[in-house]
């Protein structure tokens, strides 16, 4: 049986969103246990010209829930709103993404196949089909920002490992 667009995108996003939620919990707990101000994590960057931790988390929301909305609408524009500046706000954003992704149906996703979709930012446009937008633009961006979220925590010395990054894998179950 061939894999569906839904299967390629939605469960992958949900797995990683769950992992990001867990990373946020660990980061917050580390701050509390070590007397760190939350801003030490939330404003952390790997390089001076890179967006901070909060932006990385916000981008996981953008390239999952908002990507599906954009594909349905035919146009996706990046979310330029400021990222939340608290763990509570970041967790709420990820929870909102999980709720939105859980509401997406197989039929909705399959109906997008072959439809026009574009990335639009200011005067810049990239034309896609909806499935190619989701799989070749949003999913790699989503995974980049989830990976960077993880990498920032490792860089700060917070104890997270590959299992934290992977989240709840979709393993075969005996029937």
From TrEMBL:
Q: Which InterPro entries match?
A: DinB/YfiT-like (IPR034660), DUF1993 (IPR018531)
One of this protein's Pfam families, by short name? DUF1993
Q: Which PANTHER family would you find in this protein's record? A: BLL2446 PROTEIN, DUF1993 DOMAIN-CONTAINING PROTEIN
Query: What protein is this chain from?
Result: DUF1993 domain-containing protein
């Amino acid at each position: 049986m061939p894999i569906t667009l839904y299967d390629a995108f939605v469960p992958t996003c949900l797995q990683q969103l769950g992992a990001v939620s867990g990373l946020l919990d660990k980061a917050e707990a580390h701050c509390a246990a070590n007397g760190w101000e939350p801003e030490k994590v939330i404003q952390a960057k790997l390089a001076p010209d890179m967006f901070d931790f909060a932006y990385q988390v916000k981008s996981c929301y953008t390239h999952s829930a908002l990507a599906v909305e954009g594909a349905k609408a035919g146009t996706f524009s990046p979310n330029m709103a400021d990222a939340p500046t608290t763990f509570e706000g970041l967790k709420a954003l990820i929870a909102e993404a999980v709720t939105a992704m859980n509401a997406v149906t197989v039929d909705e996703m399959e109906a997008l196949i072959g439809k026009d979709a574009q990335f639009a930012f200011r005067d810049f446009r990239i034309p896609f089909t909806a499935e190619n937008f989701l799989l070749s633009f949003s999913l790699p961006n989503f995974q980049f920002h989830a990976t960077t979220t993880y990498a920032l925590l490792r860089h700060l010395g917070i104890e997270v490992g590959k299992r934290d990054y992977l989240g709840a894998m979709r393993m075969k179950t005996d029937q």
